[in-house]
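Side project, low priority. Logging it here so it doesn't get lost.
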Amino acid sequence: MLHVTETLALADWELSESFMRASGPGGQNVNKVSTAVELRFEAERSPHLSPSVKARLKKLAGRRWTLDGAIVLQVEDTRSQARNREIARERLVEMIRAALVPPKRRIATKPTLGSQRRRIAAKTQRGEVKSLRGKIGDEE
C-alpha cells in the first residue's frame, strides 16, 4: 500500500517496479548493479481515483502517461536502488496530490474606470505622436 493522503491509499496491484542499469557516472558499479527504477502506476484502472482527478493527473503527467493509461516514472538519480525507489514513489505521490486539488474557477472582472481612462489617454497621446510624423505642409 502506498499512502497518498490520510483517506487515499493505492493498492499494491496498481504499482509495478522494474529495475535496470543506470547510465552516467558510477564507475564499474554501473555495469554490475541494476540501480535505476521504473515505477509504473495503472492510473486509468485505479478505483481509488475519480474521473476528474484522472483527467488532471493525465495533464500533469504529460509524456509519462502511456496509451494504455499508465504513468511511468524512471529514476536513476542516485547510486542506491532503494533510494531511487523511494524517490520514484515520492514523485508519484506528489503528482497525485497535485491532481487532487481542483483548480480555482476564474471570476471575470471588468476593467476599472481609471484603467479605461488611462488607456484612452495613452492612445490619444500615441495618435498625436504619429500625426506629427506626417509631411509638413506649406504654411504661407
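Brief comment: The beta strands are 2-3, 9-10, 15-20, 36-41, 71-75.
Revisit when time allows.
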